[in-house]
Amino acid sequence: MNEQLSKEIDRTVNLLKKGKVILYPTDTVWGLGCDAFNARAINKLYHIKKRSESKSMIVLLHDKDELHKYIENVPAVAYDLMDNTSGPLTIIYSGSKDNLKHVRAVDGTVAIRIIQDEFCAPVIKKLGRPIVSTSANASGEPTPTTFRQIDDEIKESVDYVVNLFQARLSSTKPSTLIKLEDNFKFKVLRS
Prior knowledge:
Order of helices and strands: HEEHEHEEHEHEEE
CATH class: Alpha Beta
Distance between the termini: 32 Å
Largest sheet: 9 strands, mixed
Number of helices: 5
């Protein structure tokens, strides 16, 4: 790991521990995020996003072995989907534990993505808990696919903008989104 990456990881973890909201690169699009256990930071994130609190956001984990800490019963089909889907995958689970109460949807579900990129995964691991992720745009606006496309109002509203990968010009896209249903069934909501 290079020195700049290491310093940004340390800086970001320290800010997340203090309840700050960050603008950061994910394995998909640039995201707005905070500590998934910090209700005040999550409320600020909703305010920046101009999003109704009835709409949930994604939770990022660094390892699928961590899922049992946040979901009551992880179905085997979830592991099959993770092992057999190429590209980033977000799965909507039923039965989230109380530690994710600030980010679960009104129906009790929570969307989780296991992230393996060079920045987010070490941040989450070092933080020791999940982070919230939502695209870096106001609710209802198009999702920016590069850092340059992010609205200045968003950049100025966060507590910190991660100083990595901002010059990347390649477009990215959101993750595949799958909702688990009863009897080992699932539904693809976004591909």
